[in-house]
Each structure stands twice: as C-alpha cells, then as structure tokens.
Amino acid sequence: MARREDCRRGPAIDRSPIIDRNFTERVGRLRDASPRDRSLPVRSGSSLTGARAIELFEAQIGSRHLDLAARALRGRGQGFYTIGSSGHEGNAAVAAALRPGDPAFLHYRSGAFFLARGRQVFGELPLFEVLLGLTASKDDPISGGRHKVFGSLALQIPPQTSTIASHLPKAVGAAFMLDRASRLGLSVSVPRGAIIVCSFGDASVNHSTAAGAINTACWASFQGLPMPILFLCEDNGLGISVRSPPGWVAASHSARPGLRYFAGDGLDLVSAFEAASEAARYVRETRRPAFLHLEVVRLLAHAGADEEQAYRTTAEIEADEADDPLIHSAELLIETGVLTRAGVSALYEDLRGRVTALSGEAAKRPRLGSRKEVVAPLAPSDAAAVASEVGRPADVAARTAFWQGRLPENERPAHLAEQINRALGDLLVKVPELFVFGEDVASKGGVYYVTHDLSRRAGIARVFNTLLDEQSILGLAIGAGQMGCLAVAEIQYLAYLHNAEDQLRGEAASLQFFSRGQFKNPLVVRIASYAYQKGFGGHFHNDNSVAVLRDIPGLIIASPSRGDDAARMLRTCVAAARVQGSVCVFLEPIALYMTKDLHQPGDGGWLTPYEAGGEHVPVGVPRAYGEGKDLLIVSFANGVWMSLRAAHKLERDHGIACRVLDLRWLRPLPVEELLREARRAGRVLVVDETRRSGGVSEEIVTALVEGGFKGPVRRLTAEDSYIPLGPAAEHVLVREADIEKTALELLSEGRRSAAFTVRRRKRR
Ligand SMILES: Cc1ncc(C[n+]2csc(CCOP(=O)(O)OP(=O)(O)O)c2C)c(N)n1
Ligand SMILES: [Mg+2]
User: DSSP class of residue 500?
Assistant: First the structure.
C-alpha cells in the first residue's frame, strides 16, 4: 500500500518518454547470443517457435507505439483517446493460442491481441485501423469515427463499449448459442469448432455483470450444457486507483464448479502462450468454460489524464516500468539468439517510424461531418424488406405438423395471450434460427402461459428455460443474434427489465452504431408489462415505467392492445430483426392477456380471429377506432381498452363522438397520423398508463406542439409513484371514469363546437 506522503497530487505526468527510453536502454545493455534456428521452440518444452515469437513481439511493439502515438496525437489535438494497452501486451500470445475465427469480445487494453490477430488474417499489423479510431476518422473501418474500439468483422472481433464487464453476458450467450445452433444444424456466423474469448480486467471481475456472466457459464457447464468460452482476466492489480486485494482473482475463480482455472505470466510470452494454449485446448475439446488468469502490469497510468502519482508511489510506478513486458520479450528473443540486439532495435524503430507516418496520415482523414452522417447506422429501416420477410410463406407441411393438424386460423377467436402464442408458434416453424427462452417459458409456458406448449411442439432445444438472471437472458439474446440466430426472449415483468436494461441500452442497441452496421444483434424482448392487476402483485408486478426504453436510440418499441395486432406486430418485429438487425421490445399488457370482453360481460369484443398469412402492422403504423370528430383519444395498451369503453359511454350518455387512436408503436411514434387525427378532431385527450414523468404522453404532447396543433390537449397519466398493493393502486393509475370526466371537461372548455352543442340539446 502506498504511503500517503509518498504520493503527490498534480497534473498527470506523461511517462511515455520514460518507458520508451527504458526499453532502448535495457535492450542496449543486453548481450547477443549465438543465433538460433527460428523454427525451433524459443524455450525448451514450449511450442512457441522463434519465428512465431518474433511475430508476437512485433504485435507487442506495434501496440506500444500506438499507445505512444495516441498521446502524441492527443497533445496535438488530433487524437481523442488515450486508454492504452501498455503493460498488457502479453495478450498477443492469447491471440496466437486461438484460431482467427474464434469470436473475441475484448477488453480496452487489447491492442497487441488485435494486432496479432490482424497479422494472422491480413498478413500485416492493422496499425492504420487503430490510428483511424484514435483520430475519430470516418474512415475508421469499424466504427466510422463513432468511437475508438477494437473491432473488425474480418477478425471476428465485435466492438465493445466502455462499460466494463457489460460484454460478458453476450459473450456467454454467444458461446452457448454457438454449440446449440450447430447441434440443430443451423449455419452460424463463425467457423465450426470455434470458441469464444472475452477479456477484462481484475477490477471488472467484481462487477455484478461479470459475476453474473461467469456464474451463468458455470451454471450451464455444471449441468453438462456446452459453454465453449475462455474468460481472460488481465490482472494488473488496479482498477484505476483501487488496488485489487492480492490473490483475490485466483482465490475467487480457481475453484468454481464447472470452470477450469489456468494461470500464466502475462509478462512472459512463453508462459502466456503456454497457459493460453492449454486453456484454449481445454475449452475447444471439452466445450466447457475456462478462466485464464494472466498477471500483467499497467504502464502509462489508467489513461492519459489519470494522475497516477496521486495514488501510487514513484517507486511502485518505476517497479512496474522495470517489468515492462516488451523488455521481457526482447530479453527472451536476444538471450535465446532468436534476434540480435540490433534486430530488436531495428524492429522497434521501424515500427515507430511506421506508426508515426501512419498517425500523420490518420490525422488528415475526414471526420463525421453532420448529424445525418453520425446517426446513419443507428436504426436501419426498410419497410419493403420487412413486409417481404413477413410475406415469405412458411412450409405448409411443417406448419401442419407443428400444430398437429389443428391450424390456429381454424380455431376459435382468442385473447391476446393465445394470439401471441400462436404467432410465436408460427414463427418457430418459419424461422429455423429463432429461439424462445426466459425464466419459466418451457414446461410452465411462461409467467402468464403465453409460451404454453411451444417447448413441446418446437423442442426443448429451441424453447427453453434460462436461469434467474435478466442480464444473462438479455446477454443470451444478444449473443444469439451475433452468432446468426434470432432470440425472442421473455422478461417476466417490466420491473425486472430495469435491473438489466443496460444490456439493451448500452449493448444491443448500440452495436450497429459502433460498427457501422457490420455487426448485428437482432432480437425481440417480450415483456409482461403494465398495471391493472386488480390490486394484486404490488409495484413490481404492475410497473408502468417505460422512460428508460423510450430514449434508447434506434430501439423499436411495440405495445399491442389486442390479439390480432399482437400477432401482426410480433411478425413485424421478428422480420425487422431478421432483415435489418432491429432490436425490438414488445410490451405486452398483462391485464389484457386473458381479456375477452369489451363493453359487456360475454360480448367477446376483445377476442380476435387468428390470421395465418403474411399480415403485419408496419413499424410506426397506428390503428384508429370510430369516426367521431368531437374528440381524439390517443392511447395504447390497456388505455385503448379503457378508452374504447369510455368512448362508448360518452356517445351513449352525452352524444360525444370520439375517435380512439391506438398508437401501437411507442417508438417510433406515429407522429404524422397523430397530427392528422388531432387536426381532424380539434381536441386531444391523451390516455397514458405510464408515468407522468418520462411517460409516453410527454412525447405525444411535444409532437402536437411541434407539429403546430393549436387545439386543447389534456393528458391523463399514472402518478409518479410506485404502485401500492390492493385497491389503493387505483389512486395512482389512470381510471376509466377519469377518461370520461376529462373528456367532458375538455369539451366544455372554451367555446363548444356548434355540432356538439346541437347534438347535446337534441338528446335532452
Ligand atoms: C460499469 C462501469 N463502471 C465504471 C467504469 C469506469 N471505469 C473504467 S475502467 C475502470 C477500472 C477497470 O479496472 P480493471 O477491470 O482492473 O481494468 P484495467 O483498466 O485495470 O485494465 C473503471 C472503474 C466503467 N467504465 N464502467
Ligand atoms: Mg486492472
């Protein structure tokens, strides 16, 4: 532990000249050995040849010069990212121990891994690609100037966000789906026999996201389910300024059920390569997860602006600098006669020269020049392609077999839950790479039986239960998408999305953005949502907060209110996911799952027939009920059902003719139709069962104002409150009676329309 008086606060000191000089000086002091055949192992007992070690050393040096260049670029105002890989360059050996087709979900200190794999695939170090990322150039092949990420389609390296550990659930999901899909004979987007690698730091292992993902891998492996994943922990002993307890990573991961632990010295190429090879072999052969723990050092502080001297003593910093992995590699290669001292210096200076020249070139490249350019890859939208995918017919015989001759369109009209079940069944028949999973979705049929019997019909390999962890469920959905599958995942209640929502917000929805659409994670998340459980369940089974979803860029949010719409919209979501990689959330109103009637008990007004064909509701297209011109009621989900009932009573009791607009899509909102309908009626009542703050009505009212609508507008919303148990829930929810009351108030405000006044008089 650093003593306080040894640490000094002050501006961050750039130690890049120091580590640069150290390398040159230490190499200068080494003595050449007699030359060695480079095809021989670089150290006895190892399978790493001299030639291979030189390649890895080049990747290490390249990565180091990229770090130095990042700081120089930053100093000149031409670069925008200084988190480096210095001290972690041993990860080049992990790349060498893997196959280039093994998907790699990488830590931000993976420069040498990236270069080493680039060398395997392209035959040269992809230095320029990294520099284009550092300079935020729109020529950056992976993100097009949107972020500095390590990513490449050709290298099977999907880009990752800055959120530590958030890539682990999807890496686990990818590993699981890789073998599941292969077993089902589906073609996956990676070579046969591939394994997944994901890397992270020693502090990151403590994040609940990492802990959850590693636990999920253990849970699967423990019961014999294939889980070919290599977890790579690059342990530099620090999480920014916080020291990891010495021995903690090993103690907490070396004896976990289902997980094999391997350790290596990340400062020594041979040790890192041997440990990585052994671990990779274990994962590849057994299809079980392994944890590879590499001890490394962190050089050049956490990032360029980090005042490392405020929390570490100079002696400590210098000790790490003396342990520089590049110096260790140089020693290895010179002392064994694989390279001469002059050869090492030439390599080092040659790469310095190349990186310097390329960074000058990168700095000249254009940056993103407009809002349009920035958002271009955010949410691809091709309505014709979606329609054509929905219209693509399913195999008739397979469908008949699936439904055992009882085709759903020949069955009686049904409620919402049943129609979703039927649509899911049909989609399972039509889309072979589609999987349905979540807590309890298999034999129980989901928390509300929506997936009832699907597991039996489609097989447990395609409709299956997960463990109880929403982050892992969403990670599985994302990983499935990245492997070329398509997940329809279920989250039991909206409240339980909230503890996992970053998987949608930070991960799924951002992937196309940060990869210029090169990587996709198509998925649909079905969520049993909203309130009106007649007092049962309290807040967490009645949650009505959608604010966290509404501002996720590019996300599609569907929220049907009735069965036929739900089936059509589900087809749309699956098609959009399939043809354009959309990330869709499907909010299902629990209270309407089993609702049969609309106005009177027994009227069957909320039952709908099932359509077997290619019917769908294009994204963003609403549904209007009634021709009334006195008032437009805008709503969705439960609000539609209540508004239709209220509209019926308003007509019957007061002669008020309403038109009810079911938005159906909460994102993107059908703004044009909304404005057209609002102008037609002249008055708008928004019935929004979500919260007053952050709820859907905020955007509706804003759209009306911005669209120039001048008539009166009122909104009914739920309170900004948690929902209490029992009848008290009514106090904070939108009530049907309030719709009538507010409609009447709205109509009596200001001057009443002549038509309305006349009709009222007539009634009297
Ligand atoms: C979820 C989250 N919380 C906080 C941060 C800020 N942060 C970035 S890196 C880091 C430390 C990570 O340490 P470690 O996992 O050991 O990786 P290292 O940087 O040492 O390689 C923190 C706290 C973040 N990126 N994500
Ligand atoms: Mg660390």
Answer: G
